[in-house]
Design a protein that fits this description.
Elements lengths: L10 H22 L2 H9 L4 H4 L1 H24 L1 H12 L2 H7 L3 H30 L4 H30 L4 H19 L5 H8 L10 H8 L1 H30 L4 H25 L5 H18 L6 H28 L3 H33 L1 H22 L2
Length: about 400
């Protein structure tokens, strides 16, 4: 069978992977609206740093798994890693339903981080393998759009279900369905993309990196700039995940209203990538990364001064727009600057640092929130995001 590169040529496998990534995003959406409230209501936890511990372990386990998914993608196979990821994700909703203390929630989030690292990284690499070099931005836009639309929709659904039927167990039943569906589709229908990599390798003009880890992390001006922005992006996302629901509750919003406002950000993020992913194939990637991070920074700082439902809705939408501009562009740009044989490894290194941003953000914002208040913590993260945009402006070609 002749192997062809391109979105149109591989649309069946591509569409299947988009659907599977929707289930991957849904697994995160389970926790997005209600886990901070669960910590306070069911486990009597008050300290923000303690509540955010679930994001710390999630970020670290996902980051490390991202790296090894990239490192072993060529040896173990993309499909095999995807299936293993779903097997590890199966117990997560059950643990959250029956958790009798916070340590069980921590354990569930370690497994969730491994699940996300294996499944999301595998689908990202496989889609880039399928489409070749012409439609990478569009491919990443579709991939991330499916994932984060699912995060937003499930965050809204779990917030609504929790307000109607309680925090447990009903919201987490969705996760059982996601994990089973993802595993069945991945095992029976997904085909590995290793032959597409071989095909692209024969025509690629990109020079190989001498040290993939070091150059992707920082020493290569382009790759290093992208990586630091990815870390800061997830640092502020970790803050939004953990502190935003708490901030909204402190302002007098109901659980249902919190679910709506929290859901707007990933839904705009998800839908926006349908457009911004395609733009990343056309526009200058440096400009998109700079403006996206800048918009994020100002939206986060604006949250300190907001009070009404409308104000928070607008700021959540702005934050979603800023993130939509950068997210598919990150991965498309990493792919542009790396050789096909090193791509999975380089993406793994980028995603290692990017998702460590969850842990760094949760630790930093938790400590600052406990010491100086939630508003100070949010202001700090907004400032760091603005600095990240400046690094892109100064350092990237």
């Amino acid at each position: 069978m002749e192997v062809k590169l391109g979105l149109k040529e591989n649309w069946r496998q591509f569409t299947l992977l988009v659907i599977i990534n929707g289930f991957v995003g849904g697994m995160i959406g389970l926790e997005r609206s209600i886990l901070p409230q669960l910590a306070e209501a069911d486990f009597d936890m008050a300290a923000k740093s303690a509540i955010l511990s679930f994001i710390v372990v999630f970020g670290i386990s996902k980051a490390i798994t991202n790296y090894y998914t990239g490192a072993f993608a060529n040896k173990v196979g993309r499909k095999n890693l995807l299936v293993i990821g779903w097997l590890i994700g199966l117990p997560v909703p059950l643990i959250l339903i029956y958790a009798s203390n916070w340590n069980w929630v921590i354990a569930a989030n370690i497994l969730l981080g491994i699940n996300q690292g294996l499944t999301w990284s595998s689908t990202v690499v496989m889609k880039i393998d399928l489409v070749g070099d012409k439609n990478r931005g569009l491919a990443m836009g579709l991939n991330e759009s499916a994932g984060y639309l699912a995060v937003g929709i499930v965050a809204f659904l779990t917030g609504w279900i929790a307000s109607e039927y309680g925090l447990r167990p009903f919201p987490f039943y969705l996760g059982i369905g996601f994990a089973v569906a993802g595993l069945v589709l991945s095992y029976f229908l997904v085909k590995d993309t290793v032959h597409h990599v071989f095909k692209e390798t024969t025509v690629s003009q990109v020079q190989k990196l001498k040290n993939v880890f070091r150059e992707t992390t920082w020493t290569n001006p382009n790759l290093g700039s992208i990586t630091q922005a990815g870390l800061v992006n997830n640092l502020n996302d970790g803050m939004i995940w953990g502190l935003f629901p708490i901030l909204l509750v402190s302002k007098g919003f109901s659980l249902s209203e919190v679910g709506k406002v929290v859901a707007i950000y990933p839904i705009v993020w998800g839908l926006g990538q349908l457009l911004t992913g395609r733009l990343a194939d056309i526009w200058i990637k440096k400009s998109m990364l700079f403006w996206g991070m800048l918009i994020q920074g100002f939206a986060i700082i604006g949250m300190i001064f907001a009070n009404s439902f409308i104000e928070f809705t607008v700021l959540s939408a702005l934050l979603g727009i800023g993130t939509a501009v950068v997210y598919p562009t990150f991965l498309a740009a990493i792919a542009d600057y790396t050789h096909p044989e090193q791509r999975a490894n380089s993406i793994g290194v980028f995603r290692l640092w990017r998702d460590l941003g969850y842990a760094i953000g949760a630790i930093l914002t938790g400590i600052v929130a406990d010491s100086f208040g939630v508003s100070t913590s949010i202001a700090l993260i907004g400032l760091i995001t603005l600095i990240s945009s400046a690094v892109i402006k100064i350092r990237m070609d």
